[in-house]
Amino acid sequence: MTVVPESSYIEALLGELGQIEERYVDVVEHSETYYSNPNRPVGTYFIGAADYSWKASDPALEATGCHCFVTSVAGK
User: Within a domain: residue 17?
Assistant: First the structure.
């Protein structure tokens, strides 16, 4: 007798990724960036440096981001 799984691996993976996305959307929507290109000073160049950086966030947003990370890693 062949056992058929309730959902395929790809369906389970997509479900988990959807849950992770839902948790992170709020954090990303409330985060801000600013232009911080380190190559602006004359004579100093960083190859591959990012042009933008994250602005400082309030403690509540940081706590939410940490909670999202921990629950994502723990698989809850």
Answer: yes
**What's the total number of domains in the chain?**
1
Distances (CA, A) of 28 to 14, 17, 54, 65: 20, 16, 10, 9
Is residue 50 a part of any domain in this protein? Answer: yes
Cα dist from 56 to 11, 33, 64, whole Å: 37, 9, 14
Q: The whole model's pTM is what? A: 0.51
pLDDT in tens, 3-42: 656 778 888 889 888 988 888 888 888 889 998 877 776 6
